[in-house]
């Protein structure tokens, strides 16, 4: 499995399975954020099953489903809170890693330059350019 690091303490990836959890733990992550809504995926890889595997491995699991085109302020606040409270690296997944990258960037607006918030995900093929204005606006708050 490939961890796509946006910072030394935050990485994203496409959808994982319960069988991937040992690799997540071995990579040193302490918290896992599920950004994929259950309605998009078959039952065996829905949040309840990932939660059980992640918690059995001794990590924190946070279900923060991001609906395409409808990221809420609560979604962004949850993403920021998990990163701020984690006692180590955070791993987030969704369908491709894109939504997890967007949530990261929005949660970090004002903490890092907008260009950097767009460039880090771009190294993995995630295009956050359409979010430039929103990132800049959040940075001003």
From TrEMBL:
One annotated GO molecular function: transferase activity
Key words of the record: Transferase
Question: Pfam families under this entry?
Answer: BLH_phosphatase
Instruction: Pinpoint the Beta-lactamase hydrolase-like protein phosphatase-like domain residues.
Output: 2-110
Question: Which InterPro entries does this one have?
Answer: BLH_phosphatase-like, Prot-tyrosine_phosphatase-like
To which species is this protein native? Albidovulum sediminicola
Superkingdom of origin organism: Bacteria
Which protein, by its recorded name, is this? Answer: TIGR01244 family sulfur transferase
NCBIfam families per UniProt:
TIGR01244 family sulfur transferase
């Amino acid at each position: 499995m490939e961890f796509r690091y946006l910072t030394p303490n935050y990485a994203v990836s496409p959808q994982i399975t319960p069988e991937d959890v040992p690799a997540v733990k071995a990579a040193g992550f302490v918290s896992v954020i599920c950004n994929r809504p259950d309605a998009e995926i078959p039952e065996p890889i829905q949040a309840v099953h990932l939660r059980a595997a992640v918690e059995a491995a001794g990590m924190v699991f946070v279900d923060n489903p991001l609906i395409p085109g409808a990221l809420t302020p609560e979604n962004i606040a949850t993403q920021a809170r998990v990163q701020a409270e984690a006692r180590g690296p955070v791993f987030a997944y969704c369908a491709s890693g894109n939504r997890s990258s967007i949530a990261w960037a929005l949660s970090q607006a004002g903490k890092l330059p907008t260009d950097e918030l767009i460039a880090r995900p771009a190294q993995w093929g995630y295009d956050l350019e359409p979010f430039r204005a929103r990132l800049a606006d959040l940075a001003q708050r």
